[in-house]
Amino acid sequence: MAKRSPHQIKKFVRERYGARARERLTGLEARESEPGASASGESCCGPSEAPAAEESLLHLFYAADELKDLPEETLSSLGCGNPTAIAGLRDGEYVLDLGSGGGLDCFLAAQKVGPSGRAVGMDMTPDMVELARRNAGKVGLSNVEFHQGEMERMPFLDASFDVIISNCVINLSPDKDAVFRESFRVLRPGGRFRVSDIVWLRAPTEKERSDLESWAGCVAGALMVGEYVAKLSAAGFSDVRTRLGDDGGDRGFTTAYVEAERPVAGGPAFAESSGAAADAPSGSCCAAGETPEVAAAAAPSESTSRPRGRCC
Predict the structure, then answer these.
(1) Could you give the 3-state DSSP secondary structure of residue 174?
(2) Can you list the positions of beta strands (E) in the chain?
(3) Nearest to 228 by CA among 244, 251, 212
(4) Which domains does the chain have, with CATH numbers?
(5) In terms of Cα–Cα distance, which of 203, 147, 142, 149 is closest to 173?
(6) What is the pTM for the complete model shown?
(7) 40 compared with 273, residue with greater pLDDT
(8) Rounded distance, CA 17 to CA 25, Å?
(9) Which residues does residue 210 pair with via DSSP β-bridges, in sequence order?
């Protein structure tokens, strides 16, 4: 099987998740016009498996108390963990969710940071952004917003956020180095990187790496555990650590929580990391008023349990 180009990968993934969002939007419209109609649509797991898969993942990763105040239409996740559970979010913090999908993790983050904080979701598919904005209207939170953008070139100013979260999305990028450099750039000194993702426990074969369906299923593009740590460190992050899922990794890959910090300027890890991050791009293509105001730097979060399961 021929090696896939980054363009091929992004095009396939964008089309797959764009179609998923359009199916859910159609379901929402049907539900609004015909009460009792399904809003779930299909997913990358297949038409008949999608609703059950999403419901299973919700119960696996999220506590009932977390979801009780959210409208049913927003309760959809094809992630591989719950990044808000490890983020240690506090009042007034600004949070960026990479690959925010229908918005569930953003809504949970917005509740945790309160009215003085803000949760910002970013997704590369316009249909997902539209879906998230529709869901936001039902949630009724004033401190959440969604933007279209790509992880490899984020539409935000330097040092805009206290925390970055992501749920089984970074594996979809064909250029993880760019994702990590951009993450470092938009985090404030002292900021936290808290994501759930898929990782390989062995080197994948060329055939496995070239499978576009597996790319969209969150597996083919996953990094090996050591690669994840090395690439985050090369981007300038410090105290990089991973906690693997408890599924045994029999398929050669598993879920993981990955945590790292952007060093505080002048701190013990700053001199070492600043050189690694020197090549990161600066500036933003945001219009005035679209980027959060500067807030105080944040401290690392508490530990939590291991992730389980996998996306799709």
Answers:
(1) coil
(2) 94-98, 118-123, 144-148, 161-167, 187-200, 223-224, 238-244, 253-261
(3) 244
(4) 6-276 (3.40.50.150)
(5) 149
(6) 0.81
(7) 273
(8) 12
(9) none
